Amino acid sequence: MLTGKALSILALLAQTQGGAGPNGDLRAPADSLVFSGRAGEMNVTAPRIDDPEINIDGRLDEAAWQRAALLTDFTQYEPNEGIAADDRTEVRIFYSTDAMYFGVVAYDRQPELILARLGDRDQVIFRDDWVRLMLDTFNDQRQAYIFYVNPLGLQGDGLWIEGMNNDGPVPIDFNLDFIFDSDAQITDDGWTAEIRIPYVSLRFREVPVQAWGFNVAREVRRRGFKQSWAPLTKNVSSTLAQSGRLVGLQGLQSRRLVEFNPVATGRTVGERTDAGVFEREALEPDFGFNTRFGVTQNLVLDATANPDFSQVEADANQLTVNERFDIFVSEKRPFFLDGAEIFRSPRNLVYTRRIVDPAAGAKLTGKIGSLSVGYLGAVDEAPRTIFDTGDDPALFNLLRVRRDVGRGSTIGLLYTDRSVMGSGIYNRVLAGDVRWLIGDRNTLTSQFAGSWSADGPDSAGTMEPLVSVEFERSGRNFELNLKVDDVHPAFRTETGFIPRVGDTQTFAEARGTTYGAPGATVERLAGAVRFDGYFDHDEFWDGATPFEWEVELNPTIAFRGGRSINVILRDGYFRFRPEAYVGYALSNPDGTTQPFAVPPPVEHIKGIAIIPNVRINNQVQLEGRFFYREVPIYVEAGRGLEVQIAPQLQVRPTTSLQLELEHTYSRIRRQRDHTRFSTVHISRVRTQYQFNKALFIRAIVQYNLEDRSALRDPTTERPLVIDGVVQDRREEGTFEGQFLASYEPSPGTIFFIGYSRLMEGDRTYRLSRMDPVADGLFVKLSYLLRL
Predict the structure, then answer these.
(1) Which residue in 52, 258, 346, 663 has the fewest CB atoms around it within 10 Å?
(2) Domains along the chain?
(3) Given a cut of 80, is residue 584 above it in pLDDT?
(4) DSSP secondary structure letters along 125-162
């Protein structure tokens, strides 16, 4: 009887004889170098080829590929787990003294429908076909390097971090960029790719023989089918624990990492003065540098002086007319990104965008055995210091230690300090956290933190606590999430991002999912019940009821071809708290004021949301959201009814051209008398033309038009006064325009020139009725030198 492996090899030989396949001259390697994923052959012994002479052009036509190990028999994991992949994929692997090599043959029965476009690094993988490599170089099932390539060779990369919550479909930090080589081409029966990953871009143990966790995944975008070599299931909480392994890697001779990255910038900025005159500064050149040095193979020292932080992207399309809390903005600055995963903890106690304008900084990150360590120090020259006291620079010191425990579990300590040198002013936080895997499906995550603050040399800080506990159960058909977050009213972090202080949050979600048969029109039916409640910290421990809660029912239908519709049905409650309305008063007809009385709670806050995702064809995608919901009008302490419509249209007429159109319309009416409280229009157009993988031009235009009526007391209808100012009607419009031409052949090496303009004025799309507020011309030249 033939074994499963022998049958796999015979089938492979039949497919590759006579020139079949995207590279017809490829032959099956020896039996010992063929590894079937469905047969469970998870330990891959890739050959070492010291002088492969590979030209990374997307063609697997060099002799070295004939000697490579071959991965076959992929398994689908979305939408149907455990069945043979609908589209065959083969991956060839070998390594040399300085790099890993991967050759991909991705078969497709309709190659004319393959989705592949040029675009921004990391972004097109959300719209295109792709192949993804996962390298867990420490083989510890905690994190792994991720390398994507699309059918045109465009790259995406990041770091897979088990347990990271980034509100996305996968726990990947895409902000990180690694240097590797890739190219691909579309063929008559699919597409092929070549990938070379140098060891100098990776961190791994310094041992003579390496064993790395490893997996390969692929998505055929137009069908929504995902497959992997090592089979994946949602019945196991850890994706990395389901990986195969690259074993027997010997003689990996990575040179010591030494990078020097000088940066030259020039800018000229114009602003409208208080006198109403628009003035422009002269061109202001500036110079700085970043450097990285590998103390060991996996311990890296970063330093920066007078750094350029122009990578911070414009925050666009944010609806803020009825918001109560700060909006989180992701970190984009390169100095802070490398090793950032070490500073992560269950609550966001390290938010490096608090370091606004550093004069210099240093960072040491890496792994020593089972211990991950990180230190970051910086001097921030931003004009705001702690407690808004003066203009003195602030000194940041962040220290993180995390230890691996057992299979996939961790325990860690974090210390943060922001202080004004020589003043006695500081804010410090000490925290401990645990992530514990219980069996295959259950994860318990907890964090306990205390903060100390002082506003001067005579101030004695006291410890104020933060507690977070979360339980998660994963599963293909049933998932459960339970969480409690408790933040003391006096808890303070000047290095993190905790928008709700003094609240205790309780959260529970149960989700059930059923799947259609392979090829069915309806691929997936899911339903979730979610409760989210907020208590006053002191009242919670006294057994009081929440001041804010929501119950949501969330049915979802996913159709064949990457189309879906998501519905949210909501009921809620909100109690206005007196401490939020300190400084409020009512204006009398005679010009005097009288105290503001906080109105009763808003009960049974109903709402419905419909969120469609419609792939019309390979060139056109329609998404968006529709809300019809009751909302608390926080600034008036009243009840409102909001209609929000936000369509998003993406058009890709050619491989190089991208056009995105978005419009958000929000109207809120007061429920008590049906008068209009606010109307907001946010219109955004983004167009980009990509000449090749490195060169593009992009233009973005955005209008924000807002009309908010004069604020009135919800009980007496008298005008509201806040901090002594009558809140009259506010009607305004802003225009933001950005243009950017960028050439980036590899991460760290870039030249771009950009122009932005901000205008304010009437609530209109006519620029003639707006005045310029600020503009800027920016030029940057950066070169990354690896020694």
Answers:
(1) 258
(2) 4-250 (2.60.40.1190)
(3) yes
(4) GGTS-EEEEEEETT-SSSEEEEEEE-TT--EEEEEEET
The Cα–Cα gap between 223 and 566 comes to 19
Going edge to edge, which strands form the sheet with 584-587?
593-595, 584-587, 720-722, 725-726
Surface-to-core class of residue 154, CB atoms within 10 Å of its CB (0-12 exposed, 13-18 middle, 19+ buried) = buried
State the burial class of residue 571 (Cβ atoms within 10 Å of its Cβ: 0-12, 13-18, 19+).
middle
β-strand partners of 712 = 719
Lookup: tokens for 698: 């992009």
Give residue for tokens 């229009």. 681
Q: What is the 3-state secondary structure (H, E, C) of 210-243?
A: EEEEEEEEEEECCCCEEEECCCCCCCCCCCHHHC
Q: What is the pTM of this model?
A: 0.87
Read off the tokens for 416: 């943060």
Q: What confidence tens digit (pLDDT) does each residue in 434-445 have?
A: 999 999 899 999
126 Cβ neighbours under 8 A, 6+ residues apart: none
SS3 444: strand
Query: What are the φ and ψ backbone dihedral angles of 275, each rounded to 5 degrees?
Result: -80, 0
In angstroms, the CA 687 to CA 660 distance is: 6
CB contact set of 93 (below 8 Å; sequence gap of 6+): 44, 46, 68, 69, 71, 100, 101, 102, 103, 246
> Over the stretch 116-133, which tens digit does the pLDDT of each residue have?
999 888 887 788 999 999
326 CA to centre of own chain: 18
- Distance from C-alpha of 658 to C-alpha of 653, rounded to nearest angstrom: 7
Q: What pLDDT sits at residue 23?
A: 53
How far the first Cα of the chain sits from its last, in Å, is 56
Question: Which position has the token pair 């989700």?
Answer: 511
Q: Token digits for 721?
A: 């006064």
Q: Which two tokens stand for residue 424?
A: 């006695």
| Joined tokens for residue 574 | 């909100």
Residues 6+ apart with CB under 8 A from 388: none
Percent of residues, the chain, with pLDDT higher than 90 = 71
**Of the spans 200-209, 263-272, 277-286, 664-673, which averages the highest pLDDT?**
664-673
The rounded distance, in Å, linking the Cα atoms of 255 and 253 is 6
Burial 326-361 (b: 16+ CB within 10 A, else e): eeeeebebbbbbbbbbbbbbbbbbbbbebbeebeeb
User: What's the whole-number mean pLDDT along residues 752-776?
Assistant: 92
Percentage helix, strand, coil for the chain under 3-state DSSP, each rounded to 5:
10, 55, 40
292-318 pLDDT per residue, tens: 999 888 899 999 887 765 543 443 344
Burial 183-216 (b: 16+ CB within 10 A, else e): bbbbbebbbbbbbbbbbbbbbbbeeeebbbbbbb
Residue type, 53: E
Q: Which two tokens stand for residue 618?
A: 């390979």
Is 742 within 8 Å of 715 (Cβ atoms)? no
For residue 47, whether the previous peptide bond is cis, meaning omega lies within 30 degrees of 0, is: no
- Give the rounded distance of the alpha carbon of 146 from its chain centre: 14
Separation CA 471–CA 31 (nearest Å): 45
What confidence tens digit (pLDDT) does each residue in 351-382 have?
988 888 888 899 999 999 899 999 999 998 87
**3-class secondary-structure state, position 298:** coil
